[in-house]
Amino acid sequence: MADQEQCELWKITLGELDEKMGVKVLEESAQRVVATMPVEGNRQSLGLLHGGAMLAIGEAVGSWAAVIHASSMGKVAVGVDVNATHHKSSREGIVRATASAIHLGRSLTTHEVIITHEETGDRLCTLRITNFIKG
Fold first, then answer.
1. CA proximity to 125, closest of 42, 67, 68
2. 34-76, pLDDT tens digit by residue?
3. Which of 56, 85, 125, 131 is the most exposed place for a label (fewest CB within 10 A)?
4. What is the per-residue pLDDT for 78?
5. Is 28 a catalytic residue?
């Protein structure tokens, strides 16, 4: 049975969108994934960091953490729910997305993702993502 064996943990590989957005991974584990992204290149037409870019990096770090957890059981994870609250935006600099595990189960994971501005420390966005673990 896969979940009773010692399985190799999945290592984060950037996807095409992550690369286009300039994402850099700083930490990776099922408990915590941290990545950064530049504001430049990810702004909407009014010059602000695009809310969709914050959702994209937030979903990425939360999903990566879930896949790492699932890989420990020889399984994969797929997103089933994500929600976000945008508190503030930015026009420049670097943002940091930190996914922290709320629940790491056998069939579901839930992570809270906090996106902050690297220089000011301001919280820009809070997300919660739930992933389904499948064999």
1. 42
2. 999 999 999 999 999 999 999 999 999 999 999 999 999 999 9
3. 85
4. 97
5. no
Q: Which two tokens stand for residue 5?
A: 């064996």
Six token digits for residue 81:
């729910």
Contact 87, 51 (CB under 8 A): no
User: Would you state the structure tokens that stand for residue 91, as one six-digit string?
Assistant: 């026009």
From CA 19, how far away is CA 112, in angstroms rounded?
Answer: 23
User: Which position has the token pair 């790491």?
Assistant: 104
Q: How far apart are CA 12 and CA 60, in angstroms?
A: 10
Neighbours of 130 (CB within 10 A): 18
Token readout for 79 is: 């997103």
Distance separating alpha carbons of residues 41 and 23, to the nearest angstrom: 11
pTM over 0.90: yes
8 A C-beta contact, residue 134 and residue 78: yes
What is the DSSP secondary structure assignment for residue 128, as one 8-state letter? Answer: E
Residue from 27, 40, 59, 118 carrying the catalytic annotation:
59
